Structure formats: C-alpha cells, structure tokens
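Much of what follows relies on a compact textual record of a protein's fold. A record is reproduced here so that you can trace the correspondence yourselves:
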Amino acid sequence: MSKMIFVNLPVTDLARSMAFYTAAGFTNEPRFTDDTAAAMQWSEHIIVMILTHEKWKSFTDKPIPDAHQTAQVALCISMESREAVDAIVTAAAANGGKADPNPPQDYGVMYGRSFEDPDGHVWEPMWMDPKMATGEIEPPAHTPA
C-alpha cells in the first residue's frame, strides 16, 4: 500500500459538512461513510475524514476546540493553477465557508489564499510555478522558506 494521509476533523453537522466538501471538489467514498463519519477524498492519497463530535470523542478525551476561535493547523493543498485557487475559495464561500480568513499571498511564482469550512477549519489552497517546484528557478527572497 502506498503512503496516504487521512486528515480527521470534528464537525458539528455531518450532512452540512459533506455538502460543503463536495462543493469544494472533494468526492465522498461511501465505503467509509456512515451516520457518524464520512470519507471525503481529495486525491488518490489524501482523504479527509469528517467525524461527528460523538465519533471524535471515541478517539480522545481531549476537548474539541472551537476552530472559529483557535488555530491548531492550516491544511495546505496544491492546485493546478491560480484560477483553481480562486475557484475553490469561491466555492467554499458560496457553500457555508468563509473566504480568506488569512491574507492572500501572491509572490508571482507562488499564489495562495485560504478558506474556512463551516466548523472553522482553515484550508490553504496554493499554486506554485512548476519550474520552482522542480528547482529550475529559485523562490523570490520574500517568500516563506
């Protein structure tokens, strides 16, 4: 089996979150979905498990933070173009999310924005010039390392 990542997120309304992630371009994997959790696939190797609070609490005794008030992670996903970055942020905002809770970043060869899902989890779609990704060109001095 190839290496994969499963991002697990607690959500307050499973159906609302499934609709949100579907609108943002994720695909539901019904084999791993029931009334307590849904597998929302981003790519062959990246799956977001959205879990009801009750399901989440079966994995840990730690309290569930309010992601609208606190930040624990920023989930960065690569996109194929600047336009795709803008499109996913627009789709997120039109389907119960919030566009640009963090300032957009445009470094010419790198472009990124952000959105929150309905529960406040922050996603950062970004595009990078393929030449920078392969090392053919160096990042500008003002980009983050």
The first strand starts at residue 5 and ends at 11. Residues 82-94 form the longest helix (13 residues). The mean pLDDT is 94. The chain is about 20% helix and 30% strand.
